[in-house]
């Protein structure tokens, strides 16, 4: 088989490992059904295989390591959606996909089907190191310093069934980027890594103790420049400190961010250094040979730009204004002048953010095969990126997306709403988030209006666990339960990335319709009073929340 | 109670072991050869006594509490401890390979416990993705 572009090509041992893992899970299901395992004992074991018990059914969360899929894998996901679910799947903010309607009895068979395409659901849940997330423009963006995916794969392998770190105090999320833009929200992860090249090989800036959830915290720098050779040793040392000293008496105080906050970043760093001092670093050394061996299993796209691509593209844009608008919002500069990065919006106005039907999955797999080296990237904003599209083929690509109803020109705009599944599916939720997402999506569905509003992120979570990252949205919405009714708190001014900050609560929670109306009034206020070229977030930063609060609550 | 032997090393029979607590060990180090560490006690605390210790017992209050994995690995890696490491408390056969790979030798099981599941789990994975203290 030809090696896949953008992700690691399995070898026979990786496939054997998956079969061993599935056999183990099959046995665990049997022991649960026979009563040999109690539900309390079975729960963490099934969670570490991606299986949750939700409101209506079991849910399976399939891992998409560092967000990269190939066409063959996406077709397999379409098959799972059709055969075992209700014909669709939901892409999550952690670059995974969830199937919401599966039965436990089918789970081993689904895992076997997924394994045929070198996919699994290992550690997509549970108190262990979760799927490693990465930059959706990795290996393609013009601003990138280095492609982080080879190291993401090394971390995936290192964290898979790690004997010491599979029963941690709480879940542990690692993200890695190789761009100065920090497109992975490194400061909102348990560990965030920013990779950069140097004369002596890659260096990693390490952030620790960030996260959203009940207690949103911006991560702090643990080390500025960890050399590649010491990357695994540094992660081992950090996890050792966390496993030994993280709280286990209170579920809500158990994340590493609480430990770092409690003892302080300086003592935490000293504790990690003390571990490193006790370790034989040669034993943990990530060698250039090892990195090269993993890198050799990644195929690079063979780019062949055509001379007149720019002229062809300009002509297409001139002839079709709708395409020109999509180009404006949904493409990003590629390092090769003849190529573009295209983002497929999974936020069709009025639809559920991140939901994709089996037909759309098959269609996207075909499109990726035709235009993008069969490589697709799931983003932490619940969209799909095609990393390498020849500029003269963008128009044909867009037409194909239109046929799939996936051509919404709204990336980074008001319609590009991030939302968790909410109370419609999730047992943790206090309120539904999808109806609000659909209403807002429809309210700002008009492409011209979105273009006028400009850059705006709206994030919705159905409870304080913050799967919709509401603290990090320019406008954040949090579902709360008020005496048995669903209400929505509005937050203002959050952002991920370089200048990561946590949104401030605007005022009392509102009903669903009042929340939509309040947000509409805030945006109207922005449009009427903004300075030239000023984005919504810049205006919030300049004026503070007071004027927005005033308009938001004016009729309440 | 009976012992399940993970590592096939020579082990101290269950009825012979009479571990003291860390506090007792510090107070009366003479003659003690077996010590029980609580999950919040560090392996390093045993350093002054390890020459005389041949059995360290670690405890799982519940199988989800993974601190003993770090304690066991620390004893082997940092303290170069060669004696027996035993675990008690709530552990699952599904943890067998993790325990062995972190340097644990024996698991205390109820007398009526079926050991076949433990045997099966030890053989389940032929492939691992990390270096560890024991394979």
TrEMBL record, chain A:
Task: Classify the source by domain of life.
Answer: Bacteria
Which residue intervals define the domain Nitrite/Sulfite reductase ferredoxin-like in the entry?
A: 58-117, 341-403
SUPFAM superfamilies in UniProt: Nitrite and sulphite reductase 4Fe-4S domain-like, Nitrite/Sulfite reductase N-terminal domain-like
Q: Where is the Nitrite/sulphite reductase 4Fe-4S domain?
A: 125-277, 418-552
Keyword Repeat attached: no
The UniProt entry, under Gene3D superfamilies, shows:
3.90.480.20, Sulfite Reductase Hemoprotein, domain 1, Sulfite Reductase Hemoprotein,Domain 2
For whether the record's keyword set contains Iron, the answer is: yes
- UniProt keyword annotations, A-Z: 4Fe-4S, Heme, Iron, Iron-sulfur, Metal-binding, Oxidoreductase
InterPro entries found in the cross-reference section: NIR_SIR_4Fe-4S, NiRdtase/SiRdtase_haem-b_fer, Nit/Sulf_reduc_fer-like_dom_sf, NO2/SO3_Rdtase_4Fe4S_dom, NO2/SO3_Rdtase_4Fe4S_sf
> What is the protein named?
Nitrite/sulfite reductase
Q: Output the Pfam families linked to this UniProt entry.
A: NIR_SIR, NIR_SIR_ferr
UniProtKB/TrEMBL annotation, chain B:
Domain of life of the source: Bacteria
Sorted alphabetically, which InterPro entries does this protein's record hold?
UCP030820
What is this protein's name?
DUF934 domain-containing protein
Please name the source species: Saccharibacter floricola DSM 15669
Q: What is the lineage of its organism?
A: Bacteria, Pseudomonadati, Pseudomonadota, Alphaproteobacteria, Acetobacterales
């Amino acid at each position: 088989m030809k090696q896949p572009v953008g992700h690691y090509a399995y070898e026979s041992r990786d496939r054997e490992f998956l079969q061993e893992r599935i056999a183990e899970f099959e046995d665990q299901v049997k022991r649960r059904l026979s009563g040999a395992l109690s539900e309390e004992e079975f729960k963490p074991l099934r969670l570490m295989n991606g299986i949750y018990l939700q409101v209506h059914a079991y849910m399976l969360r399939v891992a998409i390591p560092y967000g990269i899929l190939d066409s063959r894998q996406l077709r397999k996901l379409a098959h799972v959606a059709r055969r075992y679910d209700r014909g669709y799947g939901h892409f999550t903010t952690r670059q995974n996909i969830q199937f919401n309607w599966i039965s436990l009895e089918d789970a081993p068979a689904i895992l076997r089907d997924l394994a045929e395409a070198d996919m699994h659901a290992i550690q997509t849940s549970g108190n262990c190191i979760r799927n490693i997330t990465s930059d959706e423009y990795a290996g393609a963006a013009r601003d990138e310093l280095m492609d982080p995916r080879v190291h993401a794969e090394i971390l995936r392998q290192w964290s898979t069934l790690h004997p010491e770190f599979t029963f941690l105090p709480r879940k542990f999320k690692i993200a890695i980027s190789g761009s100065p833009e920090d497109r992975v929200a490194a400061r909102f992860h348990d560990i965030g890594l920013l990779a950069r090249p140097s004369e002596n090989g890659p260096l990693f800036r390490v952030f620790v103790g960030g996260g959203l959830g009940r207690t949103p915290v911006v991560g702090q720098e643990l080390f500025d420049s960890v050399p590649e050779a010491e990357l695994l040793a540094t992660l081992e040392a950090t996890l050792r400190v966390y496993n030994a000293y993280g709280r286990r008496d209170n579920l809500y105080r158990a994340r590493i961010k609480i430990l770092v906050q409690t003892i302080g970043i300086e003592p935490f760093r000293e504790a990690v250094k003390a571990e490193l001092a006790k370790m034989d670093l040669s034993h943990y050394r990530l060698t250039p040979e090892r990195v090269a061996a993993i890198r050799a299993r990644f195929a690079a796209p063979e780019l062949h730009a055509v001379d007149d691509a720019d002229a062809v593209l300009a002509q297409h844009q001139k002839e079709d204004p709708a395409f020109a608008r999509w180009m404006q919002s949904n493409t990003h500069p590629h390092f090769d002048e003849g190529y573009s990065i295209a983002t497929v919006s999974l936020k069709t106005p009025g639809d559920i953010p991140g939901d994709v039907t089996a037909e759309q999955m098959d269609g996207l797999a075909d499109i990726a095969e035709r235009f993008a080296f069969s490589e697709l990237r799931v983003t932490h904003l619940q969209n799909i990126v095609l990393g390498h599209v020849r500029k003269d083929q963008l128009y044909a690509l867009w037409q194909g997306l239109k046929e799939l109803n996936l051509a919404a020109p709204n990336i980074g705009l008001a319609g590009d709403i991030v939302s968790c599944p909410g109370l419609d599916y999730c047992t943790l939720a206090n309120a539904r988030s999808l109806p609000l997402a659909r209403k807002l999506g429809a309210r700002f569905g008009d492409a011209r209006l979105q273009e006028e509003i400009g850059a705006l992120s709206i994030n919705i979570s159905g409870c304080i666990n913050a799967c919709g990252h509401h603290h990090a949205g320019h406008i954040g919405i949090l579902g709360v339960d008020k005496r048995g009714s669903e209400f929505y708190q509005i937050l203002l001014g959050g952002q991920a990335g370089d200048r990561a900050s946590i949104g401030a609560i605007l005022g009392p929670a509102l009903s669903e319709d009042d929340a939509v109306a309040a947000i509409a009034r805030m945006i109207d206020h922005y449009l009427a009073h903004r300075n030239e070229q000023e984005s919504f977030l810049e205006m919030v930063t300049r004026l503070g929340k007071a004027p927005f609060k005033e308009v938001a609550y004016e009729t309440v | 109670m009976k012992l399940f032997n993970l590592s096939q090393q020579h082990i101290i029979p269950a009825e012979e072991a009479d571990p003291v607590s860390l506090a007792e060990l510090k107070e009366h180090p003479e003659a003690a050869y077996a010590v029980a560490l609580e999950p919040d006690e560090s392996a390093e605390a045993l350093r002054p006594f390890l020459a005389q210790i041949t059995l360290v017992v670690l405890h799982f209050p519940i199988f989800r509490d993974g601190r003993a994995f770090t304690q066991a690995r620390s004893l082997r890696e940092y303290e170069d401890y060669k004696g027996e490491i035993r675990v008690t408390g709530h552990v699952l056969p599904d943890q067998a390979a993790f325990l062995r790979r972190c340097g644990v030798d024996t698991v205390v099981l109820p007398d009526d416990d079926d050991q076949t599941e433990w045997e099966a789990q030890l053989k389940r994975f032929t492939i691992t993705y990390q270096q560890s203290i024991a394979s």
